[in-house]
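FIELD: query
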Amino acid sequence: MDIVTFLPITIPGIVLGVSLIWVYLILPIPIYGTIWILLLAYITRYMPYGIRTNSASMIQIHDELEEAAVISGGSWLQTFRRVTLPLLKPGLIAGFTYVVVVSFRELSSSILLYSSKSIVLSILIFDLWDGGQFPIVSALSVLMIAILIVIVALASRLSAFFGVRSV
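FIELD: result
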């Protein structure tokens, strides 16, 4: 199963974009040209990184903790909610933060899948750069970096709240 989750890493972003165009033009699902196809491309492209982060967190949780919860009378759902999930929260936050940060700057799939109704920041910066509007490109790039710094700082604070003191 581990190999299957990492297959999207081997596929270049442009190939992923073309394949998503091809699949969703044939299927009767009307998501081509919307923000949903971009979201699907980002999830497909970067899900392996989030899974790798969370599997590293999962490996650190010993089976004895879950067994102790079951022996104490907890159901599977209670064990997951009260034992496993609190221990996984820092890994989940780190994985989500990484996926958000790399999705913010993703260009190869986005350039094939965007429409005039679904322009993302990386496409806007690329279009302005191609048009020679370098001061606006610089300002938007600094804005994007500032937004990403805020996202990472919030994730760090949130992880510290759940028990991780340094990220």
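FIELD: remark
The CA atoms of residues 92 and 136 lie 35 Å apart.
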